[in-house]
Amino acid sequence: MSCTMNPRMAVTKEVEEAAPPRYGLLSAATVVESMPAHAHNGIEYVVNCDPGLGLYPTGPGQCEPGQPPTNPTKAAVPGRAVTRADPFAIYGAEPCILGNQDENEARLQLRRRLQRGERHLIEQAVDSGYAGARPYLRHPDADLVTDEPLTLDDAIGVLEHRIAETGRAGTIHAPRWAAPRLDDAGVIHRDGPRMRTALGNSVALGSGYSGMPPENLEDDGMLWLYATAQVTVRRSDIIEPATWSEGAFNPATNSGFLLAERVYVIDWPCHTWVVPTTVERPYTPAPPTASAPALTISHEGNTAPLQVDAHVSNWGSGPVELDWGDGSEVETVDDGGDTTHTYTEAGTYTITATSQQTGGASTTRRVRVVAPLAAPTDVQIQASSPVEATATWEFESAGGPDPTGFEVRWRPSGGSWSQRTRLGAQARSWPLPQVEPGTGYEVGVRALTRQETSPEATGTGTTPAHPDPVLTVEPDSGTAPLEAEITVDNHGLGPVTVQPGDGEPFTHPGDGTSTAHTYTGAGTYTITATSQMWEQASATATVTASAPDPVLTVDPTSGETPLEVTASVDNHGNGPVDLAWGEGDPVQVADGASATHTYETAGDYTVTATSQAHPDASAATAVTVTAPEPEPLELAVDPAEGTTDTEFTALVTNHGQGPAELTWGDNSDPVEIEDGASATHTYTEAGEFTVTATDTDDPDRSATTQVTVTAPDNP
Question: What is the mean pLDDT of each run of 10 residues along the chain (715 residues)?
Fold first, then answer.
């Protein structure tokens, strides 16, 4: 037989039942008939698994007296989860010998077999995942409520307690043989077509339920009970692929082959709870015939790199060999095990799960891996002028899909991003809507398809700045009033605005023209020329207009002490001056006024007049003061004549010029004598002697006199 969906579990004629038994999974579950075609691939939805609520005290008495009440930190507790359910199918086949059976009758019989036998196989699939579809009760992720075996009433009570914690109604799952035990324990009762617990939860008594522990636990031979949230069974209408006249007939054997099948998706949100009981299992149903392993994969197609999770079930027949189909090493996976593989390159791969113990029976799944949508490359900003810039980029699909368009955004460097602009698939450039000279910009571009957005690629660029004008000033210094000619070259970019810097109105000369401006007051002025097209383009120059120096007249400019001089000042109307005589403190003299000063000490002096308003403006005149010529030094010796016995007395008069050095004209040592003082001396030999007095401080000032010495008369 050929199988279009895998795995298939056959219902043969021999297992037909007289009437569908009640109180199984289809009685307890919510059954959705005529499942739409798009659900044949499984379903996935977001559900609130847990309330995710918090608790804290409020009201009086929750804080110390005099202290404000506290408000605890309220952390987010996630309660939402994604629930996924895989599809599986049940089919029935009817071989018929033409002439022995009517086609319509055969088809009717086949439908009845499917309707009567599906419940048991559904329960086996839900119990142990024999169809390779999740969820199923004995999955290793089942929540073991307690390790200790419980009595039936305690087990039901604990499971109902866990169901109630989620705020949902639920379903208790037990093998059908356990019904009398549960009834004897008083924990179930009939409620129309359903069996319920004392608290109203549905009870599914399934002939396909094994009562065994989860796959990851060792079987202890005891009864294990399971609980879930309310189960939903979605099933398609019965699918009948062909009639005898339309392909279900083999002329070689003169036989027809009818096929009827149904697709199922069974789910419950979030939790599966399990508890062991103290009841020994008297019976465990045999698993369905399944020569090929069940293989469930998490993805059938997506972009590379693609991680695919695989779950294999070999129906208790040992490990399987899993070939990922991309040349990687074949894995050995335990029965009921999980494994993961990542496809790094695009391609269509066939995953094959082969049983090691059942004659090489295998199951395949196909995965299509496509290259991801590539990002744009070589993103840059080209600025053709200070006020024009264009973003450009390239795009190569690199084996991935072609884009259906691009999105672009931009910002000044360090600024905020603009809104994204959608462009067509052929776009490779985009003008920035508004740019300014001399500014850096960043642009981000990403490719789009209907299903995918590429990573964003960015590029940068800088618009050229407007050149500054060239500003020339001639002359740039001089005495006020100073007329300066200002010339501006704006490189052909239009007129400029010139600010002379002295508070006078602006002028607006054209590019390459000149304007004249007169600076009437002394000072240093900054001239600014600004382009009228772009205010950030400007140039500056300085002009220094100095104040005229005062005119200083000093009379006389030389003489002997005490010397009185008169200084007259003309400051050109610029206010008073500070007049310094070269000694003592300066005096303030009004513009056009004069002042006098007497020099008592000889020397060279500089008279300086400095403008108080303009300290750089000054004038100076030299004055030479000399001392009067002193009287000659006088020397008198008494007596002028005498003998060797005579004592001579010398009197020095230096007129206040200090001491003098006195020599007697013989070999005696000189002596220093004060002005107006006298000294005595006796000669030891007769002769003519010159007595000399010399000013100690001025050797040019001296006086001499002659002394005659004779020998004394003998008596």
Answer: 35 44 90 90 83 70 62 60 85 62 76 88 89 87 94 95 91 96 94 92 94 93 96 92 62 64 92 95 80 75 86 80 93 89 90 79 85 92 88 90 94 92 94 89 94 91 88 89 89 87 81 87 88 86 89 92 92 90 92 92 93 90 89 90 90 90 91 92 91 90 92 75
Place of tokens 């199918």: 89
Secondary structure of residue 154 in the 3-state scheme: helix
- What per-residue string of b and e applies to 1-21 under the rule 16 or more CB within 10 Å gives b? eeeeebbbbbbeeeeeeeeeb
538 closest CA partner among 548, 528, 523: 528
Q: Which residues pair with 632 in a beta bridge?
A: none
Q: Which residue has the tokens 């094994």?
A: 210
Which residues are within 8 A (CB) of 109 and not within 5 positions of it... i.e. 6 or more apart? Answer: 94
CB 543 within 8 A of CB 484: yes
Q: Do 458 and 379 meet the contact criterion of CB atoms below 8 Å apart? A: yes
d(CA 31, CA 355): 34
Contact 130, 124 (CB under 8 A): yes
- Rounded to two decimals, the pTM is 0.44
d(CA 378, CA 323): 40
Tell me what percent of the chain is helix, strand and coil, each rounded to the nearest 5. 10, 45, 45
Token pair belonging to 660: 């003098």
Report yes or no: 328 and 345 within 8 Å, Cβ to Cβ: no
User: What whole-number distance in Å separates Cα of residue 281 and Cα of residue 273?
Assistant: 19
Asked if 410 contacts 490 with a C-beta cutoff of 8 angstroms, the reply is no
Domains, in order of start, for the chain: 143-234+268-280 (3.30.2320), 300-370 (2.60.40.10), 377-462 (2.60.40.10), 470-544 (2.60.40.10), 551-626 (2.60.40.10), 634-710 (2.60.40.10)
Question: Tokens representing 694?
Answer: 């010399």
- Residue 8: how many CA atoms within 13 Å on its side-chain side? 16
CA separation for the pair 547, 577 (Å, rounded): 13
What tokens appear for 353 in the block? Answer: 């799960």
Strand pairing class (618-626; 603-611): antiparallel
Give a three-class secondary structure readout of 653-671.
ECCCCCCEEEECCCCCCCE
Amino acid identity, position 200: G
Q: Decide the pairing of beta strands 272-280 and 43-48.
A: unpaired
Tokens matching residue 176: 């059908």
